[in-house]
Amino acid sequence: MSILTETLFRSIVGCRRLEVYMADRTQRPVSRFRAEVDAAIADFGSEVREKLSDPDAEKEEQLRSPLEALLRRAGRALRLHVVPHGEVRLRRLQARPDFSVDIAGMRVGYVELKAPNKGVPLTSSWHPTPRDNKQWEKLKALPNLIYGDGTNWAWYKYGQIQSYTALQGDIFRAGRKPGRF
Prior knowledge:
single chain; alpha+beta; six-stranded mixed β-sheet; 5 helices; 37% helix; disordered C terminus
């Protein structure tokens, strides 16, 4: 089981609003969920590698569709209907994370993506631009945020890091090996 699997599992299942929804549902064993998500992460790596092969393509954008597929697949593993919505404007914060995530019609969190090797806030991997710093100051007000660059991933609650992982390997050469790049 990978740390990213654990991060996804905790951020999805750890949401209090979701606990109410899932209370009466029959769930698959956690080990099966984790195996399915590990496989989805391996597929994410393969798809990202393929998309990053074009040197002229905007790197952050190449993570979007693979991540959306990963979120949907993790939801299916839990028998949940996960809907990522791209570029949702948060007027109160004057911010626009890359995705908001709804499960069963309820907003459960947000995802912010950065280009590979940019890192994630509050870790030694982070290499922010002034714009990234300004955006983080807004996004850290969110109750449930996953922030990643394809290799580095962190889950935050109100700006406090809950979980962090740096996947092994080079995302530009990622292959199909569950839980690793």
